[in-house]
Design goal:
Layout (H helix, E strand, L loop, with lengths): L4 E4 L3 H15 L6 H9 L3 E7 L2 E13 L2 E11 L8 H15 L5 E5 L4 H10 L3 E6 L18 E6 L4 H8 L14 E5 L5 E6 L7 E6 L3 H7 L1 H20 L2 E9 L7 E8 L1
Parallel strand pairs: 4-5
Antiparallel strand pairs: 1-2, 2-3, 3-4, 5-7, 6-7, 8-9, 10-12, 11-12
Length: 272
């Protein structure tokens, strides 16, 4: 695991580096350096991760209000492609938590794509954030080398950073590999190219817990199989909207066969 230096950014030259990182990660500029500077001075947070004086990742968060509570809204977190899967995202989140707590902030909220298995694992498994809402096409259509033209459906998650549950979990995280033996909402198979697809989905189940499988390689699928990627988006949209509106909540994210070519990824839904 790479151990970068993580620090609060204050200089315009560092915010310029965040601009360059945005273009590399998403293919476009979303937040200009001047806005980042103002955000940092006005109660938000901009943190950068540096390896050998190179900015390799960053977090950009606004001071915001949600459900009547003052929070940090983490609008962007990105890690340069060649530095991914080295724990930098987790380290950025933990550093942001420390900074937010020092400012009296008790929750950090953000969105993520439900089909991004790596983000789901970080957010729900490693950080113990909780899904509060599914929003259809949250950002609308925008040019991104990650989105590849798909509707920008998102989970909104709340990370209650001051809670005892989160504190205990971060102090002694427990492995969540192995899929609970609960009924599946969709029955999946592999097509001729090796991508997973749903043979059928069942929106009428009422078991106490259910599992929802997602593809482990959404980015590759969007490049190599865009029609199937869109189908996954629309099917999982229907699944989550249906079950969340009928009393279920997202109870966790689990993986199986992590170290093999047959990685499987599942959300578990629990009826409240």
């Amino acid at each position: 695991m790479l151990k970068p230096e993580i620090r609060i950014l204050e200089k315009l030259e560092d915010f310029r580096k965040c601009e360059a990182a945005q273009k590399t990660i998403w293919g476009r500029l979303s937040v200009a350096s001047e806005v980042m500077l103002v955000t940092q001075k006005a109660g938000g947070a901009v943190l950068g991760a540096f390896a050998r004086n190179e900015l390799v990742g960053f977090v950009y968060a606004l001071l915001a209000r949600r459900h009547g509570q003052i929070i940090h809204w983490s609008h962007m977190m990105g890690v340069l492609p060649k530095y991914r899967s080295q724990g930098i995202g987790l380290q950025l989140k933990l550093a942001h938590r420390d900074f937010a707590l020092s400012q009296g902030i008790k929750s950090i909220c953000w969105t993520y794509d439900p089909l991004q298995s790596r983000n789901a694992s970080l957010n729900l498994t490693k950080l113990k954030a909780r899904v509060e809402e599914y929003v259809v096409d949250f950002y609308g259509q925008f040019p991104s080398i990650i989105e590849q033209g798909l509707p920008t459906d998102r989970f909104i998650v709340n990370w209650p950073i001051a809670s005892k549950v989160v504190g205990r979990w971060l102090a002694a995280p427990r492995p969540t590999t192995g899929i609970p033996e609960v009924p599946a909402v969709g029955i999946t198979a592999r097509d001729s190219t090796g991508f997973l697809f749903n043979k059928n989905i069942d929106l009428g189940q009422r078991e106490p817990r259910l599992r929802v499988e997602i593809p482990p390689n959404a980015d590759l699928m969007r490049t190599k199989g865009p029609t199937l990627a869109r189908r996954w988006r629309l099917q999982t949209r229907k699944i989550f909207l249906s079950y969340l509106s009928s009393g279920y909540h997202v109870d966790g994210f689990f993986t199986e066969n992590r170290d093999s070519d047959d990685l499987r990824c599942f959300y578990v839904l629990r009826r409240s």
